[in-house]
Design a protein that fits this description.
Cl-channel_core, ClC, 427 residues, transmembrane helix, transmembrane, 0% strand, ClC-type_chloride_channel, mainly alpha, 68% helix
Length: 427
């Protein structure tokens, strides 16, 4: 009797080096250029922010972060961005509530207005980050310039390179770009091995990250006390905090289409954005100056003194910041949701530490950021990576992998914080 044999399916062939070498130069150019766009916009916004929230209120004889000035500045920012959306060609791109990290290729005429709206938003104080509009600008520039100067290069390559380069520049490491691109490739048919497909995007991400590191010296380490060998209480804390943060984030996700729809009834950007700015001013009055801006430097201030606030104080900051993120993303400000969501998760983690001192602050922060980002972004790898780099503790990574499981069960299959053009949530 003949013995039956089973044959394993052949693995995808690897691409020869000569097939990958032509992609190196375009990836390097896109990586460096994308980083310089990000650094340039961020630097210009920081200079304007320094004027608007420093010498200007001092010259007027009002407090830099008094309630009056915060309300005035946020409303004025809404007016300024509203003017850009109304009058500048391209109207600063599509409704930001319909965009995620995967940006569409926008026409070149749209990009100057989008850059201007983003810079004004970053300087004026709304609770959004630069990631979504900067990715959209770099994708548009790469597709336009690449198509003109290297017309033989596949057109689909430029958006992937620009996205990877910008993500590498934003996080200061190409690992984040590789994780995002690999997650996107998981749902698409691939030709060849995974690393062959990642070769050009990883090159662009590495060049973007290196350029940002050399020019701007970014860091995400919050300087929290280092965590030693994990204990059972650390596992329990991560298993509780991450799902709790995800549940709070899902509350904002479910409210998103309703808040967006209410503000969209105003119809005109000169009504929606100033109204949103006024609401943000009221929220800033409730939460204080730490709930302004994208939240990166502000969460560093929180982490430097984890014993300086009560659990209720940290929880108030988290709720106010999440509400500010919800309003800013709904009324038309051009910006992303990752950085303010990280602030919310950090505040929740520190609230858990203040409530139960046995919860290590590094575990609390990492688990809180993980759960919040899973709910807001639905990007598993980015959520794990961001939570891990904030605390720079290798021991916390295993805890995060365990804590991600119940948190993911809470968010998977449910609406995302992104809308279709008809206002219905993306699932």
């Amino acid at each position: 009797m003949a013995q039956e044999t089973t044959q394993e399916p052949p693995s995808a062939p690897t691409a020869p080096a000569r097939a990958l070498l032509p992609f190196i130069l375009p990836a390097v150019v896109v990586g460096v250029a994308a980083s310089l766009v990000f650094v340039g916009v961020s630097a210009a916004a920081e200079r304007l922010q320094g004027v608007l929230w420093g010498p200007l209120p001092d010259a007027l004889g009002v407090g830099r972060f008094c309630v009056l000035w915060m309300c005035v500045m946020l409303t004025a920012t809404g007016i300024a961005v509203g003017l850009v959306v109304w009058k500048v060609p391209g109207h600063a791109g599509p409704d930001p509530a319909t965009l995620g990290l995967n940006a569409p290729v926008l026409p070149p005429a749209v990009l100057p207005g989008l850059l201007l709206a983003t810079g004004l938003m970053l300087a004026g104080g709304p609770s959004l980050g630069p990631e979504n509009p900067i990715i959209a600008v770099n994708v548009g520039l790469a597709a336009w310039l690449g198509g003109r100067f290297l017309p033989r290069t596949p057109g689909a390559l430029w958006p992937v390179l620009a996205e990877a380069a910008t993500i590498g520049a934003l996080f200061g490491t190409p690992v984040a770009a590789a994780l995002v691109i690999s997650e996107a490739l998981a749902g698409r048919p691939m030709r060849g091995r995974l690393w062959d497909n990642l070769f050009a995007p990883l090159t662009a991400g590495a060049c973007g990250a290196m350029t940002t590191t050399l020019v701007a010296h970014p860091t995400f380490d919050l300087g929290l006390p280092p965590m030693g060998h994990p204990h059972a209480r650390d596992v329990l804390a991560a298993l509780v905090i991450a799902p709790a943060a995800a549940a709070l984030g899902m509350g904002a996700v479910y409210a998103f289409p309703y808040v967006h729809g209410a503000l969209r009834r105003l119809r005109h950007p000169m009504l929606m954005l100033p109204a949103g700015g006024l609401l943000l001013g009221a929220l800033a009055a409730a939460g204080g100056e730490l709930t302004l801006f994208k939240g990166l430097s502000e969460m560093g201030q929180l982490a430097r003194a984890p014993e300086g606030r009560s659990a209720g104080g940290f929880a108030t900051l988290a709720v106010v910041k999440l509400a500010a993120l919800l309003v800013a993303a709904s009324c038309g400000f051009r910006g992303g949701r990752i950085f303010p969501a990280v602030f919310v998760g950090t505040a929740l983690g520190l609230a858990a530490h203040a409530l139960v001192p046995a919860v290590h602050p590094a575990v609390g922060v990492a688990a809180g950021v993980l759960g919040m980002l899973l709910a807001i972004t639905r990007q598993g790898w980015v959520s794990l990576f961001t939570a891990a780099v904030l605390v720079v503790s290798p021991a916390v990574l295993a805890l995060l992998c365990v804590a991600s499981l119940p948190a993911w069960l809470l968010v998977t299959g449910r609406p995302q914080m992104q809308l279709r053009e008809d206002g219905t949530p993306v699932r």
